[in-house]
Specification:
By secondary structure, the chain is α+β, with helices and mostly antiparallel strands. The protein folds into two domains: 164 residues, Jelly Rolls; 145 residues, Orthogonal Bundle (Arc Repressor Mutant, subunit A), CATH 1.10.10. A hairpin with a 2-residue loop joins β3 and β4.
């Protein structure tokens, strides 16, 4: 990761320093896309939220967390009750007493795994150790200075936990990631249709059971949950931008009935489709850039919306 360089691990005097932290609970909240020079750990304690990063929307459920590298644009979307513990860390040269990064790296290879990681972010599951460490660190920061022995000890342990988690994730092969990426692309391309897991596995060319295990391991959620999440996100846009009948939208997005659509929408968005439309209708009269995969749905269901030239873009063109 760019935020942890070989220089930090090879030269003496570099320490992790917490520059921002919070623990709070929101019923509804949104942070627009932004980036910073710090490494960020966002941990979901309760509920769930959506993280927008690199043209993807990632759902974080309770006891999952995302590790973001520096300078990676990301956004946060909360539509119903969600509690988050967030800590942002920089690696600075300081005259602190205690174990610096070079000493820590000499004792454990996990810190090198963190520095060598090429991905801009990792979505990780927690067995409990990361949360306990983050919570203890949060409480320590409220009472002690950044160079307090207890704070440095907890930060070093947290880095080792993160390095181990990244190392374990790295055991997944590139081909496995390709399978899941192709599955996600298939889902987006057929989001308004009835999608069967068998059809996805046939497209990806692997066994259905294996694909489901792989998808859950890498994305942190089931294929069905991912499909529903993508449909609800698109439904929110359609409700904001059109006055089409809700039952028609439900069928256009591949839902078997309006009742099931309304049930899932309320579970994900925290309110009924009708209420959502009332609160968000007319937020925007023009779409500037949308995914190429959404082109057919938008053109069929949003004929009244103006589209900028070149508004539709393929995923590979936006990277």
């Amino acid at each position: 990761m760019d935020c942890v360089s070989k220089k930090h691990l090879n030269e003496s005097g570099y320490f992790p320093v917490v520059v921002s932290y919070y623990k709070t609970k929101w019923d509804k909240y949104e942070i627009i896309p932004h980036s910073h020079t710090r490494m960020e750990i966002m941990y979901v304690i309760e509920g769930h939220c959506a993280i927008g990063v690199q043209e993807k929307t990632i759902t974080l459920n309770a006891f999952n967390y995302i590790l973001l590298d520096s300078n990676v644009p990301h956004s946060l979307h909360i539509n119903e009750s969600c509690a988050i513990l967030n800590i942002e860390i920089e690696f600075q040269q300081r005259n602190f007493a205690g174990t610096d990064l070079s000493d820590l790296a000499a004792q454990s290879s996990f810190l090198h795994r963190l520095a060598d990681a090429c991905a801009p972010f990792f979505v990780l599951k927690d067995s409990g150790s990361v949360f306990r460490t983050l919570l203890s660190l949060y409480e320590e920061l409220d009472f002690d200075k950044p160079d307090a022995p207890g704070t440095l000890l907890l930060l070093n342990y947290l880095l080792l936990c993160l390095g181990k988690a990244v190392n374990d994730t790295a055991q997944v092969s590139h081909s496995d990631y390709d399978y899941v990426e192709r599955a996600c692309n298939y889902i987006k391309d057929h989001i308004e249709e009835k999608i069967k897991i068998g059809d996805i596995s046939e497209y990806v060319h692997i066994n259905s059971a294996y694909l489901q295990r792989l998808f859950k391991k890498i994305n942190g959620q089931t294929i069905v949950n991912y499909i529903n999440e993508q449909r609800i996100l698109l439904a929110q846009k359609l409700l904001e931008q059109t006055d089409r009948d809700i039952a028609e939208l439900a069928l256009a997005l591949g839902f078997s009935s309006q009742q099931y659509f309304s049930y899932l929408f309320k579970r994900c968005a925290g309110m009924s489709p009708r209420r959502y439309r009332k609160e968000h209708s007319g937020k925007a009269g023009k779409l500037n850039r949308i995914s190429y995969a959404e082109q057919r749905v938008y053109q069929e269901n949003l004929p009244e919306i103006q589209y900028e030239p070149g508004a539709f873009e393929r995923e590979e063109d936006s990277q």
